[in-house]
Design goal:
By secondary structure, this protein is of the alpha+beta class. It has five helices and four strands.
């Protein structure tokens, strides 16, 4: 029985170490992708940066923003979420000048911060938030090469 318990512990430790290594490699790849082609990249990205502990509004902002991208802009806009307190994800935020909670729309060097609007309207008027975010994404998509 002791041998089985030791084997299980060693196996879980091995997998957790590999998971950390893979996570670090993914972060480095993500960071280099974000910073490497920022100027010549013609894609539109939505990044939601959050803290580990989140209120209901924080979760709602993420859900609404993701829903807008998934439904209205499928295969046109890319959405990603990062925890700014996670050491592996912190580098990504730093590459964009983010060290706090933010909702950013990015195309090339153009960066639109929708954090205030998101938290103002996500709970009280989600349709208003959707209208604002959609307008900004449409503007970014129409400005090809800018």
């Amino acid at each position: 029985m002791k041998k089985i318990a030791i084997l299980i512990l060693l196996t879980s430790f091995t997998f957790s170490c590999n998971s950390t290594k893979n996570s670090d490699e993914q972060t480095q790849n993500s960071t280099s992708k974000i910073t490497q082609n920022k100027e010549e990249d013609n894609n539109v990205y939505v990044y939601y940066f959050h803290y580990t502990v989140r209120c209901e509004t924080c979760k709602l902002v993420e859900m609404l923003a993701k829903d807008i991208v998934d439904v209205e802009y499928k295969n046109k806009v890319f959405f990603d979420v990062y925890n700014v307190e996670d050491e592996y994800r912190k580098k990504i935020g730093e590459s964009l000048g983010v060290d706090e909670q933010k909702l950013l729309l990015i195309k090339g060097d153009k960066k639109i911060d929708l954090t205030s609007e998101a938290f103002l309207y996500a709970d009280s008027s989600p349709e208003k938030f959707k209208e604002i975010m959609t307008q900004k994404l449409d503007e970014l998509l129409q400005n090809k090469g800018e």
